[in-house]
Specification:
It is a single chain. This protein has a single domain, classed as Calycin beta-barrel core domain (Lipocalin, Beta Barrel), CATH 2.40.128.20. It is of the alpha+beta class and 261 residues long. The chain has three helices and eleven strands, in the order H-E-E-E-H-E-E-E-E-E-E-E-E-H.
Length: 261
């Protein structure tokens, strides 16, 4: 089985996090701190850019997966049994999505569409590319990208709704603070179907405590579906000495395969 078919099968049919690091290409990357035996030293200090900020660059994989009562892993924010502060509209929406008993939502990825933020960040590797005025999230799934502007611009007042929204960021000491808006309402926040509207606002706070670890704190504000802002923290592990692999989704093939399963 090729990596592409493995990823497609996992994401479209099972919805679990990909953790088989050995499936990716192995290539020693320059600039990686190493232990005496030549292995990446993931506990080494986080690198810094020329302007002194932590360098968040690297290939990252979410390590936050909980198991539902059926015993299957899901891309979730909260342990099973935890609750987010939903409005009656949110509770109704969530009950309809999860009422089939499968404990998973029909993600847009089942139709080869992006999962949005942060759901698209959970099951598949992300490559972060950090430059002085722009940070890029390159997603292996579907080979799509997200732009985070760090050049001082402000969020547009009425951005055109899109899958990944519009994002600007600034630094607060060693923490990158990202403000995002302009999302369409065609995605879920996580792999279980937490809803959001086009009024969603997300604040992300990224820290890199060491070379091999990235912490991302998400605060969600959406008065239609949530009674108050609420926060979830997602840890990411570095995938050292590797690169992203092309993964494209073909609607007429992948969707048909998912239906047959």
């Amino acid at each position: 089985m090729t990596l592409s078919s493995l990823v497609t099968s996992v994401v479209l049919a099972l919805g679990v996090a990909v953790t088989a690091h050995a499936q990716w290409i192995n290539v020693p990357l320059p600039g990686t701190p190493r232990t005496p035996d030549g292995k990446p030293n993931l506990s080494a200090p986080a690198p810094r850019t020329a302007d002194g900020h932590p360098d968040l660059s690297g290939i990252w994989l979410s390590s936050r997966t909980f198991t539902n009562p059926k015993g299957r892993g899901l891309e979730r924010f909260m342990p099973v049994g935890s609750r987010v502060p939903m409005t009656p509209a949110g509770e109704k929406f969530y009950a309809e999505v999860t009422g089939n008993g499968r404990y998973d939502a029909p993600d847009p990825s089942e139709r080869c569409l992006p999962d949005g933020i942060p759901n698209h960040m959970l099951p598949i590797p992300i490559k972060i590319v950090q430059t002085p005025g722009l940070i890029l999230h390159l997603f292996e799934e579907f080979y799509v990208f997200r732009q985070i502007f760090t050049d001082g611009r402000k969020l547009p007042v009425n951005p055109q709704p899109s899958w990944f929204g519009y994002s600007v960021a600034h630094w607060e000491k060693d923490t990158l603070v990202v403000e995002s808006a302009g999302f369409n309402d065609k995605t879920y926040l996580d792999g279980e179907g937490l809803p959001h509207s086009e009024d969603l606002r997300i604040t992300e706070r990224y820290t890199r405590p060491n070379f091999g670890r990235l912490m991302a704190e998400f605060t969600f504000t959406d008065p239609l579906y949530y009674t108050r802002p609420w926060t979830a923290t997602i840890p990411f592990d570095l995938m050292p000495d590797t690169e992203l692999i092309e993964h494209f989704c073909e609607n007429e093939k992948d969707f048909g395969q998912m239906i047959r399963q």
